Amino acid sequence: MSRTHRLLRTRLAPGLLGFPQDGRTIQTPSRWQVRQPLYQTSIGRWRNYLPHTGALVQLLEASGFTYTKNTAERQTTASYRPLKRHDRRWATPPRSLVAPFSSSPRRVPAAPCSLKRSFIAIVCASLGGEAHWLVENHRELRPGAPGIDSNRLTAAHATEEYRDSIIHQIATRLVDQDGNSVEAESDRVFVEKTPKNALRIPFFDRIFPRSRFVFLWRDPRENISSILEAWRSGKFRTYKKVDGFEGTWSLLLPPDYRQCRARPLEDIAAFQWECTNRVILEDLKALDPGRWISLSYSDLIGNPAASLKRILKFVELDIDSTLEQHLAHPLPHSRYTDTAPAADKWRMNEPEISRVLSSVENTWQRLRGLD
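The chain above was modelled as a monomer; its predicted structure follows.
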């Protein structure tokens, strides 16, 4: 390293030269990331720059190159507009879209990972992980855009343009458990599990009217403790700045978050848990009862085989020998776990949690009533 440094005659910070000795974990791209076609996320974004490329367009067309004859499309400055090749293919949404929305604003240990590496791996297609970009690739749907002050989206936001764009992104990024591309026409169930989308059920219901929802909820004492740890770690910052709140924001951004300004961290964590679960309950209540099921985290951990069989029955899929074999082993930890799971781990934050528990009691009681 030092010899290379001298040869290049560059000025590198000492911390860069000594990184093997500092003991920190080295973060590397996921298997899904490194298998993606280079620059795939930039497909179609050249249209954003059309107002500034008039001379280039004239030169290209004069040379015989024609990219479009749609004048209205040339003039658009809207964020990413999908190509039309998937419109006919996905005119009817997939056979079944299952959305396992967790009540946790972050991924809870073990449960979603086991779902992804077994149920999803064998019978489903996914986006290879949490897909925050699926919605937030559209600037107009991000918090801070006109009419958008949180991660909450309703059916009114699901315009045809956003529907086409989201379907196109899904169709071009579907992967199996090994990170291999999956054809949009394949007879698989697509599973989406991004925590922020727990606040967007009406939005996705409008886009995918045949979708089904798996509501995974967790004891607030455990979940609030995990949320506290996530905030303290600094690894789950989602927004550098949001209106009406001082400092960076971590995890999902519920409606009415401004009431958390200058509040203790345990108040923010309790608010995230209570508001998210309350919104989910109200949104699911508006759906046909046959389109969603609920499952507690404790039941999933206590009896994963029975829990996943129940989910498979709900989505009308059969369990096979590979999945049976997988379920015979202990559930793996989620890759988003900050510290190792343990019984009663929440008690390390018991004083803070006890102070705010009354504020979530009503919603907790409603969740217990689902079982």
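Residues 31-77 form one domain.
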